[in-house]
Amino acid sequence: MLSAVCLFLAAQTTPKNLEELAERSRAAYASLKGYRDEWALTADDERPVWLVRRRLDGARHWSEMGLVGKVGGIDVSDGKTDYWLDFQAKTYSAGPHKVRRALPRSRPKPGTCTFGIDETGYSFASDPPIPIASIHFDSFRGQTVRHVLGRLITNSGTEQVDFLFWPDSWILVDATITTTHGDGPKHVVHWITKSVEKNVKFGPKDFALDPSLIKGLTRLPEGR
Q1: Using one digit for the tens of pLDDT, what is the confidence trace for 176-215?
Q2: How crowded is residue 188: how many other Cβ atoms within 10 Å of its Cβ?
Q3: Do the domain assignments include residue 14?
Q4: Which among 2, 62, 178, 191 is placed 20 to 30 Å from 78, CA to CA?
Q5: Could you give the number of structural domains in the chain?
């Protein structure tokens, strides 16, 4: 296993920064089939406050997200039609399937970064770009992972990003973003995988939108 991982790494060129790494990771996620996971954004006491559940199978995907106990939105595609349901806004969109890039997000404020889990894998942006300080093997839940460390030091403080990936692919399993301003307390954003399943045998119903979910929602004329 280790020799295979070393061959994989030797064939890769090292990304220069974390935004470039996110682009490579999306390509890895696009090739996944039979994959299912669940992510949680945790509070300071490691209590989950926001959940993302995903099924990824090539062109097909199902991603639902929201506060614990309450689904706020669903992004689903059967490979032919894409749907986005926003239960808070009580709207939805539908249209022909398109290959997705990262979801559009506003640029972060100078000296900060943004991160999110979505059906493309994950999105990351920072101003300025956060360089990669190191990539090394580590242990996580008894498994070997690649630990990518990024760090940005500015006059206002420090942004440190710790991403853990599969050892042989840019599939994320854990993300920690630590922000420090001067002598003030650290602010930690921690995303953890609650479950990961591979080689799942999905059927058509796993990516079929139940018509009852859009009952009472207003359809948007031009998608998202």
Answers
A1: 999 988 777 888 999 999 999 999 999 999 999 999 999 9
A2: 14
A3: yes
A4: 191
A5: 1
